[in-house]
Each structure stands twice: as structure tokens, then as C-alpha cells.
Amino acid sequence: MQLFNKELGGTEECKDVCEDGQFDIQVQTECPLFKGLETRQMVLLTNVDSVDKVAEGLCCVAKSSRHYFRHC
Q1: Model pTM?
Q2: If I label 50, which of 1, 5, 7, 36 is the partner at 20 to 30 A Cα–Cα?
Q3: What is the pLDDT of residues 6-35, one digit of tens each?
Q4: How far apart are CA 53 and CA 12, in angstroms?
Q5: How far apart (Å, rounded) are the C-alpha atoms in residues 44 and 54?
Q6: CA dist., res. 52 & res. 15, Å (int)
Q7: Contacts of 8 (CB under 8 A, 6+ apart)
């Protein structure tokens, strides 16, 4: 996701804290990807990089408590 965002003009940053393990994320259920799901989802994450600025024309439809999730 970070590469896709970067190629379209967004930016990413390397965080000091790694999200590695089970985390609670918040999703926008209006997005077809998350249709029918609860707003809060428990997921497995393994990453340090995070989208810092979402590229023009894209939007963030999920995020963890610390960072944008990778489906922006």
C-alpha cells in the first residue's frame, strides 16, 4: 500500500514503534471492502512504515490507533 500511495504522490514515514501482532483497527463500513462488518476489527499487523500523507484522489478507509492502515 505504501508503494501505491507513494507512486501517486503521497508520502510515508518510518515509525519508531512497530505494530507487530494483533491490533484493533477502525474501518469505514461505507467502503465496499468492509460492507457488512463491524466498525472495529481485530487484525494482524506487521509493519513499521505508515502512510503519512494520503495521495490526492485516494482516501483512507481504515486505520489503527497509531497510524493509517494500508488501504488508503
Answers
A1: 0.67
A2: 36
A3: 899 998 877 666 677 888 889 999 999 999
A4: 7
A5: 22
A6: 10
A7: 55, 56, 57, 58
